[in-house]
Design a protein that fits this description.
alpha/beta, 181 residues, 7 helices, globular, four-stranded parallel beta sheet, 8 strands, single chain, Purple Acid Phosphatase, chain A, domain 2, four-stranded mixed beta sheet
């Protein structure tokens, strides 16, 4: 049975992300190989991955260079560093859908997807979850707000062992991150 996964802030090609996120790779080429390896170790061809923005940033390679090697069906929730990807038809072909905001259902749970963390979202008071990225693993003022919203989940790859995560894994990984920060 196909699974649904979430990830974001991959930042392929972005050297500063290695230091910024304490990524376990020495350079962008090794990071790209590591991210793709971890992705493909989890994701099967019929699985669906919601990518919550920022696929590439300052990469010497276009987004399709990475996307063509990544298994599964993909939906992009556009991030602030995805303008170059959106301007090129070739990487757009690797996504079933491209949206800025999306409401979905996963295992009977209603979810609001947006690259940016929102302090309030549709269905918040009815148990809907909000899955976002953008803030990486920062513990800034936005994080302080979001950590106190129990249905808000950071899908940033650095929170999730640099691999796509299921909804249940997001819940656990966010709880662990919040307990240690």
């Amino acid at each position: 049975m196909a699974k649904i996964y979430y990830t974001g802030d991959l930042h392929f090609g972005h050297f500063n992300a290695i230091k910024y996120d304490c990524r376990p790779w020495p350079d962008v080429e090794t990071m790209a190989e590591g991210l793709i390896e971890r992705w493909n170790a989890r994701v099967q061809d019929d699985d669906l991955v919601y990518v919550l923005g920022d696929v590439c940033f300052r990469s010497k390679y276009p987004a399709w260079h990475y996307l063509e090697r990544m298994r599964g069906r993909k939906v992009l929730i556009v991030g602030n560093h995805d303008a170059e990807l959106l301007a090129d038809e070739r990487p757009r072909r690797y996504f079933d859908e491209i949206q800025y905001y999306l409401e979905i259902k996963d295992s009977e749970k209603q979810i609001v997807l947006c690259h940016y963390p929102m302090a309030e979202w549709n269905g918040m008071n009815r148990g809907w979850r909000h899955v976002f990225a953008h803030i990486h693993a920062q513990t800034n003022s936005t994080y302080s707000i979001m950590r106190n919203l129990p249905k808000a989940l950071n899908a940033g790859c650095m929170i999730n062992n640099f691999a796509p995560a299921t909804l249940d894994e997001l819940v656990v990984n966010n709880r662990i991150f919040n307990e240690t920060h």
